Each structure stands twice: as structure tokens, then as C-alpha cells.
Amino acid sequence: MKVNLKTRYLVTSDRDKSAPRCRMMGSAYRAESEGHFTLHLRVLPGITYFIVRNEKTFPEYEVFAGRAKRTSGKHRFFHKIGTGFVLTASKVIAVSIPDLALYFHVMLDPESPPLSKSAA
């Protein structure tokens, strides 16, 4: 049996984790064998979203509310609810979900320490 390890990434309100008003908004996870992130936001507990790289217009990403597994084993994503893009100066995906009025950042550095207690 093969173990599918997941890496956790912080989701924050600001692209700079050391900013005084930066808040932790949730977590994103990526499994070793998958090319997409699963997204869990603190403001919407119990709901999973998916961040998928747009192969045609990389460094852009798309955010989906649904995922289904095909018979081939690959995933199909549906109900696009937002977009994202990689900020050029840092390892961060800036994500926008307009219908929910949410704008946040996924830190692509899994080795980063968590936010300090004063910033949370």
C-alpha cells in the first residue's frame, strides 16, 4: 500500500506573514501524487475548495467548489468560483473569490513557521 503524503501550506490575509495585521485564514494541502491543492478556510468550516493550476495560462490558478474522480483515476473539477496567480517576487499564490468577497494568499513555502500568537 502506497502512502500519499500531504504537505500543508498556510493561507493568510497578507502576503507578508510578518505584517502586523496578517491573520491565518486557513490551510491548503497538496498530496505528493496530485497537482492541485485542497483548501480549507476558517471562515467557512467544513467546506473544501480546490486550487488548480491553469495549464494554458500558467502562472494563473483557478478555484473550484467541486471535484469528481473519473474512471481513469484523474480528477475533474467543476463550479469555478475564483482565480489566483503566483506573485512574481515571492512564493505566494494570491487568490480571489469574488462572490464571497474573499482575498487571501497561499504561502508556497511549507517549511515556514506558523504565525506568531500576536498576529493571529
Task: Write a short abstract of this structure.
It is built from no helices and eight strands. With 120 residues, it is mostly beta strands.
Number of helices: 0
Shape: globular
Task: Kindly state the number of beta strands.
Answer: 8
Strand content: over 45%
Helix content: under 10%
N-to-C span: 39 Å
| Main sheet: strand order | 1-2-3-4-5-6-7-8
- The secondary-structure element order is EEEEEEEE
Low-confidence stretches: 112-120
What would you report as the Rg, rounded to the nearest angstrom?
14 Å
Counting helices, strands and paired strands, the structural category is: mainly beta
Number of domains: 1
Note the main sheet: 8 strands, antiparallel, barrel
Query: Mean pLDDT across all residues, rounded?
Result: 84
What key attributes describe this structure?
120 residues, mainly beta, disordered C terminus
Descriptive overview:
The chain is an all-beta fold and 120 residues long. The chain has one domain. It has strands at residues 6-12, 24-31, 37-41, 48-53, 60-69, 75-86, 92-97, 102-107. The chain has an eight-stranded antiparallel beta barrel. The chain is globular, with a radius of gyration of 14 Å. Mean pLDDT is 84; it is low at 112-120.
